[in-house]
Amino acid sequence: MTATIEASHPEVATLTPLDQMEQILYQPVNLFYNFVRNKRDEFNGALVESLEMHKQYWSVDEDRARKSPGRLALGPLAITCLAYDDQFPIDVESDYIPINLVQRTWLGEFDV
To answer: Is there a domain that residue 12 lies in?
Structure first.
C-alpha cells in the first residue's frame, strides 16, 4: 500500500498526466487505504473527494465530458462495494456510483 501511494507522487509518476494521476488513479487507492485501515468515519469524506475529483477530471472540457468512461467512477464504485459489504455506512449518493450497483438491488431484475 505504501509503495502504491509513494509511486503516485507527481515527481515519481512522470509518464501519467498529473490531472489523471491525482483525480482518477489516486482516488481508489485512498479509498482502499481507508477501507483496509477500517477508517469508517473518514471513508465517506474520501468518497466525496473522490467523486468531486472524478467530476472535475471528466468535465474539464466538452470533448472529455462526452466520453463514456466518465459516466461511472469505476474505481471508487468497486471500493465502495467492498466497504458496503463490510458494513461501512455509505452516506454518499451520486450518479457516478449508483446505489443500486453498490447494494446489488438490480440483481435478478433482468432475464439473462
So the answer is: no
**CA pair distance 72, 95, nearest whole angstrom:** 7
Coil vs helix vs strand at 38 = coil
Nine-digit cell at 56?
472535475
pLDDT on residue 7: 72
Element of type H or E holding 14 = none
**How many structural domains comprise the chain?**
1
**Residue 104, by phi and psi: left (phi above 0), alpha (psi -120 to 50) or beta?**
left
Residue 14's pLDDT band (cuts 50, 70, 90): confident
How far is 26 from 4, CA to CA, in rounded Å?
Answer: 9
> What SS3 class is residue 2?
helix
Helix (H, G, I), strand (E, B) or coil at 55: helix
